[in-house]
Amino acid sequence: MQTLPVRLVPGDDLRVALETIARDRAIGAAFVMQGIGSLSVANLRYAGLDQPAQLDGDLEILTLAGSLAADGAHLHMAVSNAEGRVYGGHVSPGCIVRTTAEILIVCLDGVHFSRDLDPRTGFPELSIHPQA
Q: Is the dihedral of CA 66, 68, 74, 76 positive or negative?
């Protein structure tokens, strides 16, 4: 197991940046253990909905976690706005870093993740494979 601390900068798309890091580093299996920082826009897909909701304004990232591999990510995040209201859901593209995002990625040895369609859920779900 290896740790990879990451800092994203203003204007970065949080999800796109993490997926790019995973692809560029050929990460086979990792988890985002935690993330904090701020966003100017958050696109979060709430449970049971097909499209993300867009939140605009000064937003604090309270928590960020999920799985990550070279072929994609499954991330959830909670953010709060300037009034202290908290929103959380599935991280979609378009979450734009306002000042910083500080993220800890833990890369796993000996396994690799893929996303395979699960007929029971109708979604591409995590598949865990031993690394050859």
A: positive
Does residue 69 belong to any structural domain of this protein? yes
Does residue 53 belong to any structural domain of this protein?
yes
User: Does residue 132 have a pLDDT over 80?
Assistant: no
Mean pLDDT of 28-32: 97
pLDDT, one tens digit per residue, over 96-128 is 999 999 999 999 999 999 999 999 999 889 999
Phi-psi region at 32: left, alpha or beta (left = phi > 0; alpha = psi -120 to 50): beta
CATH number at 107 reads 3.30.1330.80
Residue 121 belongs to a domain: no
Q: What is the distance between the alpha carbons of residues 19 and 105, in angstroms, rounded to a whole number?
A: 12
pLDDT at 123: 87
Report which of 6, 8, 9, 13 is spatially closest to residue 96, judged by C-alpha positions. Answer: 13
Please tell me the pTM assigned to this model.
0.93
